[in-house]
Each structure stands twice: as structure tokens, then as C-alpha cells.
Write a structure and sequence with these properties.
By secondary structure, the protein is mainly α. It is 70% helix and 3% strand.
Length: 356
């Protein structure tokens, strides 16, 4: 009779293990304090009110993308197309503002601001749905599916204007579209509209993630897809929803940028997916799925925003900024793996202590 193999004992965790685990969980907040303090000292005018407003707008854009990316990563996926969706949706907004919808026979439908925004948001959700269908119905890997739509969306944005900019997107009072610039450049109670949009999306996303069956199903799919399916979770539907939501967030960012600049360029949004992934991972979202919080993602977006603006104010080359962001992503993933291993060992040690 063959003896059963003995389980391999886990390496014991020292007494400071729980404290180290807590520090790892708070790493994003600690990083934000350190980065903010460094640039407050090293970068001239970093703490000026004008720079704080500009930085808040940048953070809002990155955070909106990162919120959508967080849901995707929690399910174990990735969305590389969000930057291209930003560019495409900005171009759609510019086209509708300047040209309307041409029906042929010299008939053109001119739209007001609300109608334009709804159509643009629909385009973002539609591209997200294509991502979701490629992944769930055709079994294409998320990396490949969203890489393909990245190129398709960017190409469509370039084709819409032959690579040119749509300028002077101030709207037309005759069609009720004169309020378009308010979306990105306006403010309410002294706070930019973009920040209010971020607050609304973040609160809603956090509520869905923590308080609804949909949120629990998202975490279940990322934690154990097979187990979730066996327990009755409609895995394909959940994946489709999160990619559609990611496209919705990207469309919002495209609208806000076009409104801020009062112009749309097909190259808008390039490398934005890098910032979104970095913010989500920095905020504690696990690349292996099943773990992540919206609050952590917001803090991660602040870290990326402060880092980007601080480096610009210090005159650091944009090339080096890309290198640094890549290193930040690698470091965040390494720390996340350390946290996962340490947490597993702490749990095993606590279970062993209770069984004695």
C-alpha cells in the first residue's frame, strides 16, 4: 500500500506578519503621501491653486478609465482598447457637432448636446459589447480581443477625418448644442464638472461592487470562474456587462476631453490604457482577478496623476515618464504578489492556531 504524501508545510510567518500585511494593503495611500510630499518640495508651484485644478481634472479622466478597468480586471480580463475608444468617441462627438447625421437627399439631422452625448456613450458601450462578445462567444483571449479593437477603433477615428482635427467644437445655439464646452470646462460650486462626473460614477460603481448581486457575481467570476458557473452565475453575461461598462467610461472621457479642448483629434487617448491599468493595479486590484476596490483605484489614479504632473513640472522628458509608469506597474504587480503570498500564510497560521 502506498503511503499518502505528506502536505508541504507553509513557511511560518513571524509576529510582524500581520503588521506587514496591513502596510502592504495601505501601500497606495502611503505611496500617494510620499509622492505628493516629494513634488511639493521638489517641483516649483506644484501646490499652486491653478496646478491643483489642472491636476484634479487629469486625475478625474484617469480615474474614470481606471474604474471601468477595475471591473474588467476583477473578472480576470484586460481592456487594452480604452484609449482608442476615447479617441473614437471624441471624433464622433466632433463629427456630430459639426456635420450632424447625413441621411442623404440633402437631409441632415442636427442634434442638441444631450443627444450627442447619448449617441457617443452608445458608441463606447457598443465597442465594449464587441469586446465582450469576442471574449464570451468566440472564446478570444481578452488581450487579443481588446488589442484588435484597439487598432480598429483607432483606425476608425483616423478615417473619420482623414487624420485631421475637428476644431471649434463650441456648438450651435440654433440646434441646442452650445452647451457642449460646459461638460469639460464648466464648474459647479467651484468644482469642475469632470470631478462631479467622477464622483457620481465612483459612488455608483462602489455601490454596485459592494452592495448588489451584480458586484458579488463580478468578484465570483474573477475568483473562480468554474465555481461561479456551477453556482448559477451567468459568467458570459457578467463579462459582457463589465466590458460594456469599461467602454462607457472611456466614452465619458472622450466627451470630456473634446469638451475641454473644444476640438477632437484622432490620436487622443494614446497610452491612456497604460495609466488606467497602472491606477487599478496600484489600488490593489489583482491581475489574477477576484480582488479589487473602487476606493483603492481612485487613490491609485491620484498617485499616477500626481506622478505625471510632478514629472512634467520638473521638466522630465515624456519618454522617461513612460518608462517610470511601466516600472510602477511592474512594482505594483510584484507587491501584489507579495501581499497574496503573505496573506495566504497568515491565514494558514491563524487556522493552525485555532485548531490547537
Amino acid at each position: 500500500m502506498t503511503a499518502a504524501p505528506r502536505p508541504i508545510p507553509s513557511r511560518p510567518v513571524s509576529g510582524w506578519g500581520p503588521a506587514l500585511l496591513l502596510l502592504l494593503r495601505l501601500r497606495t495611500f502611503v505611496a500617494l503621501i510620499l509622492v505628493f510630499t516629494f513634488f511639493a518640495v521638489a517641483a516649483p508651484n506644484f501646490l499652486s491653486s491653478a496646478n491643483m485644478v489642472i491636476m484634479a481634472k487629469h486625475v478625474a479622466l484617469n480615474a474614470l478609465l481606471a474604474i471601468g478597468m477595475t471591473f474588467v480586471i476583477i473578472t480576470g480580463g484586460i481592456d487594452l482598447s480604452v484609449g482608442s475608444i476615447v479617441g473614437l468617441c471624441g471624433m464622433v462627438a466632433g463629427w456630430l457637432l459639426l456635420h450632424g447625421i447625413d441621411l442623404g437627399f440633402s437631409w441632415t439631422i442636427q442634434l442638441n448636446t444631450l443627444e450627442i452625448c447619448l449617441i457617443v456613450l452608445g458608441v463606447g458601450v457598443g465597442v465594449g459589447a464587441i469586446n465582450g462578445l469576442l471574449i464570451t462567444q468566440l472564446n478570444v483571449a481578452p488581450f487579443i480581443a481588446t488589442l484588435g479593437t484597439l487598432y480598429v477603433a483607432r483606425g476608425a477615428a483616423l478615417l473619420s477625418s482623414d487624420g485631421k482635427t475637428f476644431p471649434n467644437l463650441v456648438g450651435n445655439p440654433d440646434y441646442g448644442s452650445q452647451g457642449f464646452p460646459v461638460l469639460g470646462a464648466g464648474s459647479w460650486l467651484g468644482i469642475p464638472i469632470a470631478i462631479w462626473i467622477l464622483v457620481a460614477v465612483a459612488v455608483t460603481a462602489s455601490y454596485v461592487a459592494n452592495r448588489t448581486p451584480l458586484g458579488r457575481h463580478v468578484y465570483a467570476v474573477g475568483g473562480n470562474e468554474r465555481g461561479a458557473a456551477l453556482s448559477g452565475v451567468k459568467v458570459n453575461r457578467i463579462k459582457l456587462i463589465v466590458y460594456m461598462f469599461s467602454g462607457f467610461c472611456a466614452a465619458l472621457v472622450g466627451l470630456i476631453i473634446a469638451s475641454q479642448l473644444q476640438a477632437a483629434h484622432p490620436a487622443t487617448g494614446e497610452t491612456f490604457e497604460l495609466n488606467a491599468i497602472a491606477a487599478a493595479v496600484l489600488g490593489g486590484t489583482s491581475m489574477s482577478g477576484g480582488r479589487g476596490r473602487i476606493g483603492g483605484t481612485i487613490i491609485g489614479a491620484f498617485v499616477i496623476g500626481v506622478l505625471s504632473d510632478g514629472l512634467i513640472m520638473m521638466g522630465v522628458s515624456s519618454f522617461w515618464q513612460t518608462v517610470i509608469k511601466g516600472l510602477v506597474i511592474i512594482a505594483a504587480v510584484v507587491v501584489d504578489q507579495m501581499q497574496s503570498r503573505l496573506q495566504a500564510r497568515v491565514v494558514l497560521q491563524q487556522q493552525a492556531a485555532l485548531s490547537r
